[in-house]
Design goal:
By secondary structure, the protein is an alpha+beta fold. It has a 6-stranded mixed sheet. The chain has a 6-stranded mixed sheet with strand order 5-6-9-8-10-14. Strands 11-13-12 form a 3-stranded antiparallel sheet.
């Protein structure tokens, strides 16, 4: 495989590219240091899917063959040294619903049917269960509680961000497992950057209504020369949400990689005008 080079937002490498079993994926060094998890954020490389979904696609319903998706899961499981039969997939519909995953959920959405839907976040304290969430511009949110040995993974698009998905996840971890926000380590994964994410008045009004006077100036900025258009920084918004939820600033890693700027290496809904597959976020407690 040829050398992979990402367009990064800054000189510091806050996510690390790894290639195992022929599968490239991104990891957080801050998560690796804990020694508590196996994790990875897939690229669009290293799989067997074709066409718009080429090649490491985890999305169903986009014209890809089911056998290709299963093979992609098998390859990702091998790269992460995880058990595919114990992976659990979300059912994302831009909600702020979080599911507490138990051993009884093992394999749901990957090797057997799900008995739930409208779930954009997953959390568990069961070792060996891999939480799987899907992305193609929206914001991946990953959490570790190293004290109580709990993990969570949540999907936050603009609707989820208005609904403060990150805060909802922290609260769910507190309620279910007794987690304390000050103990949490969080990662904000590859997603569309503000320069690439243009929104209209409807989204701007939703953010203004949801945040009120607390809306930071660096989250939503008018697009110069385009009345009624704005640049929205979902990464910054989610960072602020996690901080307000009580996670220490030094425990939050914000990606330096934009999906749209790297649409040859990552799936981007905006960058491909909707012709794309999905990447996966994988998080497993050892």
């Amino acid at each position: 495989m040829e050398k992979i080079t990402f367009i990064r937002k800054g000189p510091e490498e806050v996510m690390r590219l790894q290639i195992r079993e022929g599968v490239p994926f991104l990891t957080f060094p801050s998560f690796e240091k804990t020694g508590l998890v196996k994790h990875g954020f897939s690229t669009r490389l290293g799989g067997v899917s074709t066409g718009d979904c080429a090649s490491m696609n985890f999305a169903r319903g986009r014209g890809d063959e089911a056998a290709n998706i299963q093979e992609n899961y098998q390859r990702m499981a091998a790269a992460l040294e995880a058990d595919m039969s114990r992976m659990v997939l979300s059912w994302q519909t831009h909600t702020v619903n979080i599911r507490q995953v138990t051993e009884e959920d093992a394999g749901k959405g990957v090797v057997r049917d799900r008995d739930y839907r409208d779930i954009d976040g997953l959390m568990t304290d069961v070792p060996g269960i891999t939480l799987v969430t899907s992305y193609a511009d929206c914001v991946p949110l990953f959490f570790i509680d190293p004290v109580r040995r709990v993990i969570a993974s949540s999907h936050s698009g603009w609707r989820g961000t208005v609904g403060r998905m990150g805060q909802r996840t922290v609260e769910a971890m507190e309620q279910a497992y007794g987690c304390r926000p000050e103990d949490l380590i969080a990662g904000i994964g590859p997603s569309i950057c503000a320069a690439c994410y243009e929104v209209g008045e409807d989204v701007a009004e939703a953010f203004a209504a949801g945040w009120g006077q607390a809306l930071p100036a660096d989250v939503l900025k008018p697009y110069p020369g385009r009345p009624g258009k704005y640049h929205l920084d979902l990464q910054r918004a989610n960072e602020r949400i996690l901080q307000k939820a009580g996670i220490k600033a030094e425990n939050i890693t914000v990606t330096d990689i934009c999906t749209c700027c790297n649409k040859e290496l990552l799936f981007s809904h905006r960058g491909s005008k909707g012709r794309r597959g999905n990447m996966g976020g994988f998080l497993c407690l050892r």
